[in-house]
Design goal:
Blueprint: E1 6-7, E2 58-59, E3 102-107, E4 110-114, E5 121-125, E6 133-136, E7 142-147, E8 152-157, E9 167-168, E10 172-177, E11 184-188, E12 193-197, E13 204-209, E14 216-219, E15 225-230, E16 235-240, E17 245-251, E18 258-263, E19 269-274, E20 279-284, E21 289-295, E22 300-305, E23 311-316, E24 319-324, E25 329-335, E26 343-347, E27 353-357, E28 362-367, E29 373-378, E30 385-389
Length: about 400
């Protein structure tokens, strides 16, 4: 198995039983890493900055990310907590220095590119993949347009704009990357499984059968396990990555419909949306049991972490609710234009705007302090996914706005 090396900037509810199994391990090997200046080389390849001060420290696959105190660029503001310490305002990785911030709107057969300041169209990517989402690669140097309907992945170089050849990943519902960058994880709907693929070529390496259809995911603090939600099965599953097996399951109360999830800044809990009950469930990350429910609004579906990692934005049911991570209580609720449950695109690099896309064609930003609509525009078609790129962070874990 090949490996690559990257350079990154530096109300209570009844408890549910968890099924715990044992997991095994895998060994890997390393290969030499090519050195070239940022912006050179093929999209998705590791980058090591040369010819200037190195604000980031090395991250070797399998050893974990660089310590947050080593990954603080000049003028940036580190976020609170261990998990998001390297995703604070302005903490842009060297591999995407100079890449203008863009909104990538997944819109049927194409991905529309918008300037977030003017909201003017600046390009259209004809992926031919019926794109439902746009996911940054682990090293941030390219994007993957994912088509849920026809199960196709198409890569896009963020500097060149060149499209790669489509890769068939039938039944793909989501795309994620392990924290060490070794593997891409495709959440498949038919059959129900998690495919382990090469992050560069997307060639299949292994598959993990799932008891339900996985939809959204995040990783445990140590990066050893992937936690997924299953909307149709009202369940949550934990998969040990090295052992490639399920090590825990949780079934939510009858009628629940879990959606997106996020790990808390201290790594102690997962926040899981429930559109039916209208709020988020808290799952103890270590014991893997339900501990609490926080109501927000019926239809809650999308999540985003504030740039300072002190608040969690819950989107859906016509509102944005802000939950304080420290108190685990809702501190603000703001109505959304036209109501509904728009797709979450992420928080701007400076932390002032939360970007959303409504199926009616409305793309807009709300102020992360007041909830006021800052900018809005209408695009053609029915946007089903939105991604802001680049965003602060050393590397991308995939999904929507999932960075470390």
């Amino acid at each position: 198995m090949g490996a690559h090396e990257g350079r990154s900037r530096a109300a209570a509810v009844p408890l549910a039983a968890a099924l715990v199994l044992t997991g095994g391990g895998l060994a890997g090997c390393e290969s030499p890493v090519p050195f070239y200046r940022p912006g050179e080389g093929a999209p998705g390849r590791p980058v090591i900055g040369l010819g200037g001060p190195a604000p980031y420290s090395s991250v070797r696959p399998g050893t974990g990310p660089a310590a947050p105190e080593e990954a603080v660029p000049l003028g940036a503001r580190p976020a609170a907590g261990r998990v998001y310490a390297a995703t604070g305002a302005g903490m842009i990785a060297p591999s995407v220095h100079g890449v203008p911030e863009r909104l990538y709107v997944a819109n049927g057969q194409a991905v529309d590119m918008l300037d977030p300041r003017s909201l003017r169209p600046v390009g259209r990517l004809h992926t031919g993949a019926a794109a439902s989402r746009v996911v940054p690669s682990w090293d941030l140097r390219r994007l993957w347009a994912a088509g849920r309907v026809n199960g196709v992945l198409v890569s896009v170089g963020v500097r060149s704009g060149r499209l790669g050849l489509p890769v068939n990943v039938t039944g793909a519902a989501g795309l994620y990357f392990t924290p060490d960058g070794q593997d891409a994880l495709v959440l498949a709907r038919r059959p129900r499984r998690i495919d382990v693929r090469d992050p560069q070529t997307m060639l299949l390496k292994a598959s993990v059968p799932m008891p339900c259809t996985p939809g959204h995911a995040d990783f445990t603090l140590d990066g050893a396990s992937l936690v997924t939600t299953c909307a149709s099965g009202a369940g949550i599953g934990r998969v040990h990555l090295a052992g490639r097996r399920i090590t825990g399951t949780i079934r939510l109360p009858h009628g629940a419909r879990p959606g997106d999830l996020r790990l808390s800044p201290d790594g102690a809990a997962f926040y899981v949306t429930d559109s039916v009950n209208g709020g988020v469930w808290l799952v103890d990350a270590r014991r893997f049991i339900l501990t609490r429910f926080v109501p927000t609004a019926p239809g809650a579906r999308g999540l985003a972490v504030s740039r300072d990692a002190r608040r969690l934005f819950v989107v859906g049911g016509g509102v944005v609710a802000a939950i304080d991570f420290a108190t685990r209580r809702v501190t603000s609720q703001w109505p959304l234009p036209g109501g509904g449950s728009p797709a979450v695109g992420g928080v701007s690099s400076d932390g002032t705007a939360l970007w959303l896309a409504d199926p009616t064609g409305l793309v807009y930003a709300v102020d992360t302090q007041t909830g006021r609509v800052l900018r809005k525009a209408t695009v053609e078609g029915r946007p089903v996914g939105l991604s802001v790129h680049p965003q602060p962070g050393r590397f991308s874990l995939g999904g929507t706005g999932l960075y470390r």
